[in-house]
Amino acid sequence: MVRFANVSMSPSPTVTPGKLCPLVLIGFMGSGKSCVARLLAQYLNREAIDLDKCIEQIAGCTIAQLFATRGEAAFRDLETQALQTALQAPSILATGGGVITRATNREVLQSCPDALVVYLRAQPDTLAARIRRQPGKRPLIDGNGAILNMEQTQARVEQLLAERETYYEDCANLIIETDNLRPVDIAQRIVAALADRAGV
After folding, report:
1. Are 24 and 95 in contact (CB under 8 A)?
2. Residue 64 class from Cβ within 10 Å (0-12 exposed, 13-18 middle, 19+ buried)?
3. 28 in a structural domain
4. Residue 51: inside a domain
5. What is the DSSP letter of 122?
6. Whose C-alpha in 60, 68, 158, 175 is 20 to 30 A from the C-alpha of 5?
7. Bigger pLDDT: 147 or 128?
């Protein structure tokens, strides 16, 4: 794996110059996927898709309501459906933090040869601080209805991140350490990596 600045990139198939391919952002909740996706859409003149928003449209309710009424398994089923559909177009896809927890989803990401899958990595304290800015909106953090304090939130983030880290790394062919980067900095690094990958 090649490492430069805040970026790590693993070998991936060469993309034909000029060919548009799906660009997928993965990472823990609070890593900035949706914000960066919107910036990339502007830079690359492509559509930005938020996978959680797609799931809400399919389900007819919010993610929190879906978890509460139908459970995580039902959510993951809809997530797989939405992921498979989204990858059929060369869009910029911001996934949910737990998309890689299901083996089927990992296989979908790893079997899409032209996709650039970017892992936006951040440390637990950074993620916890961002999550606490929107209390009550993260079912896997505040799922029992109690709003956790910062210490409790960070402990929960550390637990989930430990379970997921290997999956994020296995699915990604580009890793960006985001702790000290602005969303615009992250987006610019991805644009540069995309151009380099395509041989532009």
Report:
1. yes
2. middle
3. yes
4. yes
5. -
6. 158
7. 128
